Amino acid sequence: MTISSQAPANAFQACLDEALQQSAFLMDRWCSKLVSALYERSLLIDNAPERHQLQTAIAALRKNRPAIERDFPGVLKKAIDADLAPLGAPRKTAGLGRSLSSVSFEELELMGDSEVNEAVESARLQQVIKLQCEAGLASFSARLSAAQGLPVVKADSNPLRPEIMGLALLRLLESLAVTSRDRAAWLLDGARVMGEELQSLYLLLNDFLTNRGIAPAAYGVVASPESRAGANRGAAPRAAQAYGAQAFAGVPSQYAPASIFTQGGVLPPDSEPPEPTRSQLLTLDHLHHLLVGDYEAPQRDASAFPELDSEAPPAHRDFSHTVPAALDMLSELEEKGLVSTRAKLTRRAPSEPVAQLRARFKSGAKTLGQSVAIEVVGLMLEQIAHDERLLAPVRQVVAGMEPAFLRLALTDPRFFSDRSHPARKLLETITSTSLGYASQDAPGCAEFLQNLQEVALMLGDSQAGDAEHFTALLHDFERKENRNTPQARQAQRRAVQALLQAEQRNLMAVTIAAEMRARPDFSEGNRIVTAFLTGAWAQVMARERLMGAAEGGQAPFAKTLDDVLWSIGGDHAPGHRQRLVQRIPGMLQSLRQGLVSIDFPLEQSRPFFDELMRLHQATLKPRPETSSQPASNVHALEKMFVASEKGDAVPLWLAPSEVQHSGFMDDWDGPSVSGPEEELLPAADMNPAVSGLAGLGEGIELNLGDWVDLFMDMQWLRAQLTWISPRSTLFMFTSGGGRKHSMTSRVLKHLLTLNLVKVVSQQGVVEGALDNVARTAMQNSVKGKGGL
Predict the structure, then answer these.
(1) What is the DSSP string of 420-437?
(2) Could you tell me the sign of the dihedral formed by the alpha carbons of 560, 566, 567, 568, in that order?
(3) Reduced to 3 states, what is the DSSP secondary structure of residue 152?
(4) Count of CB atoms within 10 A of residue 211's CB?
């Protein structure tokens, strides 16, 4: 056998072409084997109607076989092209079907019943196919990754992986004019047959790449953002994450969660939350009906749920009215210093373990909706209690809140479908606040844990739960944590307004600078004047244009540009000196007013005014040129506004007041990055086509709400991405105490490349927990489990 060396890119494309050519033969064998499998199954069936149904399915397959063999290569090519679409472009593979890991809790509510069934069918198909071809897939993926230029194997980058092949098959079968019963009969045996055929195809393609000199890429472990976050916690070793009173720095040990929830189903002080391994019977169909509200309203059963009975003791029945008042009174006493920590935290513990309460609620459930709600709450809180991104004490307390959320789920299923539900907002606020602390020793963490304790105690006191309770607790918690307060919202608005204003002005200034250079009376011979006019003065004119100049007349600062260019021009008519003397005072006054309008520091404009005075003196009193342009002044202005000869974009400039409101970091002035990394650092600040931070390396793409560790002022800060400008040229993070840190996309890319920004979490804790619930439901559906 002769092995020829071929460029990886050419080998990759040749492999795809070969796969498409082989796909028609693959479907020919698939149809033949499937007909045989269906016929053999029909011989084993005694039930006449079932046997007749299989015979009908066989007849339909034979009828549609030519179309299947003819159309599959085209459908497969579309699926491959969609999967290879550049990052940020619409990826249409999702429309072909769903894998076990792609289902989302939020989008499940938007799906129809038929879409839910198709999702389960697709996931089941993919699972069976993948099991049949795993052996051949491993070696083929290694060589194909090398052909794609990847240093390590990335299975999801393989456009011929079983998910894509299976989804292409499913889409093709859905396009045929056959009944759903016939298609289901085909897939029952067809999934296994497809897996066997893919195994053969992968072995053939692996040999194909081997003959072209493609060596397999290495298998490696790539840490996810969440696992990287665990490594960045540093300050809190795993041993310190044990649950117990000692975990609460700054909180009296006798009031730690272990002593509060001893009988509430919470783990003992020396144990960790368990993996969520309970055998679940929740299916995707159950979950979908819960989200869309198809289940009937739950009926309260006094014998099963005495704490929800309308005849319960007044203290419990009136809790919804007394909680807000109690919180207000507690706040007043705190302000007067009349409530001690001991008095605030002394509460009775729940009398019934959580596991026992959950079991009693499920046994007393009168509707399927109640059973599903109980199951979802249990799964969700187990996921959160095991999420290592959260501080250990927070996971402990959240686990102890389950009774309150169980009671709420029984009476208000909106908790699952409404993202703005106060109970869900409370849980999201608690977990998001926890993500803001890298360790329990972080400033403000002790106060946060104490405030969290009070929330848990208030929930533990209630024997009923509704939205009003959680609304009061949410507002009180946000007030104590200084979150979502009028002051915090005002600071955020000021920062966003400053950055929006700066982005719009800078984009307009680039356009105006280009217009200046296109003027016949504009000369770039004087670098100081050029840097000022195309920089600071372009910013002035941009603000003027955005503010809206008076209609019917020229804008004043645009007229000043005409005067400046005229005053330093070469040929002047007789009487020029006299007119120049008359115009200089007004010109200088207008220049200064323009700079003041954008809050530009006048001392930084001194090089321009000195140079302008020199040029005017040379015109008014002709004399030999004796001085050259100060290099330092030229460098200062060019660094601030002018693009370099390397083709870098114009640095984005902010006024001092805008910098103060937004915590803006100046454009990167650190060590340059050379070599292969240069491609990751495009100067995209002023490019309107930039749509985000895709392609930063390791597939990182930052989105609103993501948490990072940011190295600032010689220390690491935990910060959240709270704003991205409409054109994605500016990004703003917020760290503890509401401190703002904004920067251009260029600076952020540099910091990520130098590991000075480390991604901690890229999905909300509650959102991730609910998505895991949806995936569990999908897995149960695929395995045929169910029985709530």
Answers:
(1) T-HHHHHHHHHHHHHHT-
(2) positive
(3) strand
(4) 14
The residues near 394 (Cβ < 8 Å, ≥ 6 apart) are 430, 431, 434, 449, 452
Confidence tier at 573 by pLDDT (50, 70, 90): low
CB 247 within 8 A of CB 396: yes
pLDDT of 633 reads 54
One domain for residues 478 and 503: no
> What is the rounded average pLDDT of the residues 508-520?
91
Whether 15 and 160 map to the same domain: the answer is yes
The pLDDT score that the predictor gives to residue 349 is 46
More confident residue, 408 or 27: 27
Same domain, 38 and 181: yes
Query: Are residues 609 and 580 part of one domain?
Result: yes
CB atoms within 10 A of CB 250: 13
Could you tell me if 751 and 781 lie in one domain?
no
Which helix H or strand E contains 2, and what residues bound it? none
Q: What is the mean pLDDT of residues 32-44?
A: 92
401 and 537 fall within a common domain: no
The answer on 453 and 504 residing in a single domain is no
Q: Are residues 463 and 542 in the same domain?
A: no
Residue-number span of the structural domain to which 688 is assigned: 665-755
Q: At 643, is the secondary structure helix, strand, or coil?
A: coil
C-alpha span between 10 and 148 (Å, rounded): 9
Helix (H) and strand (E) counts in the chain: 30, 5
Residue 189 belongs to a domain: yes
Answer yes or no: is 659 within a domain: no
List, as own/partner pairs, every contact residues 458-461 make where C-beta atoms lie below 8 angstroms and the sequence separation is at least 24, other chains included. Answer: 458/323, 458/327, 459/401, 459/403, 459/404, 460/260, 460/261, 460/264, 460/347, 460/349, 460/350, 460/400, 460/403, 460/404, 461/319, 461/347, 461/348
State yes or no: pLDDT of 162 exceeds 70: yes
* Euclidean distance between CA atoms 650 and 256, whole angstroms: 55
Tell whether 154 is covered by a domain.
yes
730: Cβ contacts below 8 Å, ≥ 6 apart = 499, 502, 503, 652, 724, 742, 743, 744, 745
Report residue 573 as tokens. 């008519």
